[in-house]
Design a protein that fits this description.
Blueprint lengths: L2 E2 L2 H9 L7 E9 L10 H11 L8 E4 L9 E4 L5 H4 E5 L6 H12 L10 E7 L6 E8 L5 H10 L23 H26 L15 H11 L29 E9 H11 L3 H19 L8 E8 L13 E8 L6 H21 L4 H7 L3 H17 L6 E6 L7 E2 L2 E9 L9 E8 L2 E9 L8 H13 L2
Helix pairs in contact: 1-12, 6-11, 8-9, 9-10, 9-13
Length: 479
């Protein structure tokens, strides 16, 4: 039986507009000299994808909509994938430098995926300086989150230039339910909806101070504290309080345009660990502090630096704890302060560490499921309209956050695709009207932190400055 999208997965379909494409991606830079004949071809990539597609299920899944939008869509397996459509090839003009590559990726990243087909595309990009090639791969967020996206790429990679043999999949393709079954399931969910609403209210009201946008409403934190104090049962977990923070306006706040810019760079993981060990913090604390330093410098140079700290959205994976394989997106979104108001680098680091520890303590006591519960509490037939209306309202009233920062762990050994060595793996993430026009995502690979920065083209015209600022911010912290 085909897998049905969860309410949270379906939200990424509902939120999507021309200005808010909802896919995530990766830019893989390769050294083809280790590949057979020293080249990577479209044909060799297609052959690899065909052999490994069963290891990366989103590559073969297409959406099947329920009539009248009565329920969330299903994923059905498409064994007749049009590989020539999904795998494309292009070349950069000379000299093929990083800025040209970033510009090309930005154009590709701003285009929505065709929902009539499996929701992914792969581009083989030739003409890079030094004889390198690149592979840009994007998959819709309704099918994967950041962690699963890394796993999809890993399915195509090998530990040696010689590709490994994989056992072929013999299971029959999963098909969507027939029309009567889909309608029956939809009506059943509709009848269960009142109890879902009650479950959401009971669980979410004590945690109003965790919910972006809602947490900014005066009194939300007080209500949550009162309910936690008098409304929960004696065996309910004691949740540490989260401070109420305001979201200042920045040049990258507000609704975004359909146009993107993308920059990428690397930070030595060994240097990050030196800072971590010297100050007794975590690698993620160092990453956040470095980002705070870079964003502060960018804002300060434009005389746009707010007097108060920024508010940053941080995705946390829940895959390691009671993971549900039927749900593609297993993340919770936390918000905390980013100390861009602090001029001293060490002060920023300790401030970040304190804020991140508070978030970790809060969610370790009782992992938040409010977003999943909120999305499940609404009838599927109404959720699309409600999701879009809430998205528009949030983007035009109180900002939920200023930017997004994500840090995804990756393998610390060299990998290969079609025999070509992977030199770097840069994440290419999402910006939205609600989260703001700046997203910094970090992926650790083979001794480096590979950084991908996605911005709105109009809001941040000089995105490449951030790469220099990140490097300088790390140097400031070196013991």
């Amino acid at each position: 039986m085909a897998r049905q999208l969860s309410a949270l997965d379906a939200q990424f379909l509902n939120f999507e507009t021309a200005a808010n494409p909802a896919h995530i991606a990766g830019l893989t830079v390769l050294d083809p000299t280790t590949a057979p004949d020293g080249v990577v071809t479209k044909e060799s990539l297609i052959a690899l994808l065909k052999r490994r597609a069963h290891l990366a299920p989103p590559l073969r899944r297409r959406l099947v909509e329920v009539p009248f939008g009565l329920d969330h869509p299903y994923w059905a397996e498409d064994r007749e994938v049009d590989w020539d459509y999904h795998v494309r090839e292009l070349a950069l003009p000379a000299p093929g430098n990083d800025h040209q590559l970033g510009e090309q990726v930005a154009r590709l990243h701003g285009r929505r995926l065709d929902r009539r087909r499996p929701l992914w595309e792969l581009y083989l990009i030739h003409g890079l300086e030094g004889g390198r090639v690149a592979v840009y791969t994007k998959v819709h967020h309704s099918a994967i989150d950041g962690i699963e996206g890394a796993e999809v790429l890993a399915a195509l990679m090998d530990l040696t230039p010689e590709p490994r043999e994989v056992e072929q999949d013999q299971t029959p393709p999963a098909t969507a339910p027939d029309l009567p079954e889909m309608l029956g399931r939809g009506f059943t969910r509709l009848l269960d909806n009142p109890s879902a609403v009650l479950r959401f209210v009971a669980n979410a009201v004590p945690r109003l101070d965790e919910i972006p946008v809602v947490a900014q409403i005066p009194g939300a934190g007080l209500i949550a504290r009162v309910i936690r104090g008098v409304g929960w049962s004696a065996d309910s977990p004691v949740l540490p309080d989260l401070p109420r923070v305001s979201v200042p306006r920045t040049p990258f706040s507000g609704p975004v345009t359909p146009h993107r810019r993308f920059a990428f760079g690397r930070l030595p993981l060994a240097d990050v660990k030196k800072v971590k060990n010297a100050y007794g913090v975590s690698v993620n604390d160092v990453v956040m502090a470095v980002c705070a330093g870079a964003v502060r410098r960018w804002l300060d140079k434009r005389d746009e630096l707010p007097a108060e700290p920024l508010v940053v959205g941080i995705p946390f994976s829940t895959r390691g704890d009671a993971a549900d394989d039927s749900v593609a997106n297993q993340v919770l979104l936390a918000t905390t302060t980013l100390p861009t108001d602090q001029a001293d680098a060490q002060t920023r680091l300790f401030s970040v560490s304190k804020a991140m520890n508070a978030v970790k303590e809060r969610f370790s006591v009782a992992p938040a499921r409010w977003l999943l519960e909120f999305s499940q509490a609404m009838p599927a037939a109404l959720s699309g309209m409600a999701d879009r209306a809430a998205f528009r309202l949030a983007s035009r009233t109180v900002p939920a956050m200023n930017l997004m920062i994500s840090n995804v762990p990756g393998p610390q050994l060299p990998l290969y695709i079609c025999g070509a060595r992977v030199l770097a793996q840069y994440p290419v993430s999402v910006i939205t009207d609600v989260s703001g026009g700046l997203n910094i995502t970090v992926f650790s690979y083979d001794g480096s932190l590979d950084v991908g920065i996605v911005v709105d083209r109009e809001m941040v015209p000089d995105v490449w400055d951030f790469i220099e600022y990140l490097q300088d911010a790390l140097a400031e912290l070196m013991p």
